[in-house]
Amino acid sequence: MITKKELDELVKQYETTDFIKDDPIQIPHRFKTYEDITISAFITSCFAYGNRKVFIQKLNELFDKIDNKPHEYVLNFEPDLLKDFNYRFSKDTDVICFFEKLHDLYKNKSSLKELFKQNYNGDIQQMMQAVCNYFYCDCNLTQGYCHLFPNPQKGCAMKRVSMFLRWMIRKPPVDFGIWDFIPKSELVIPLDTHVARMSRKLGLLERNSNDFKAVKELTDRLKQFDSNDPVKYDFALFGYGVAHKDL
Known about the structure:
By secondary structure, the chain is an all-alpha fold. It is built from twelve helices and no strands.
């Protein structure tokens, strides 16, 4: 099994500003205000699946449609701007409904931070479920809609919302560190295919399925290396996995 010293060296190699340019986090890094960063990060995370170059291109198209003003668009919400925008499983009707839920949230003087914060009681998975319940309420739960924010009850890895939480909680240079109600020690690893594959290769993960049980197993293993910040190893495992696809 890989050692803490070796993993820490990989973190130093990959957790740099150079990581940003090829990662979906590049999109919220384009914005300056708190709400623009938060909303753009959440939207980006929801669409961050499939081929990276393809979904980043689609996200650029999406943000162009809303004039690169995510907070203003969510507040004023013009559904016609999103007509004909789709990505893989999600049709324009799914995307419009998703933005309508964001609009309702902010129209009612709340925010994404408040939605997550009010439902956090020390259990990340329960918080994810509560947020899911909000987005699923009074919506047509098509496959395309549900794919934007999967249901934790199904046991899936919840990689994209875990990534979003990493962005919001951990400090720069890569992440933003603009939310403070969840300790970084309680974050869970965003388990994508690169992280899962390398974790098994390096002896950090035994479970074969890429589900939330695997997320917990890997996060607990990484806490043995750094109990205060286990998710920092996301950079090491992801970066090393992308660089060594042949392993």
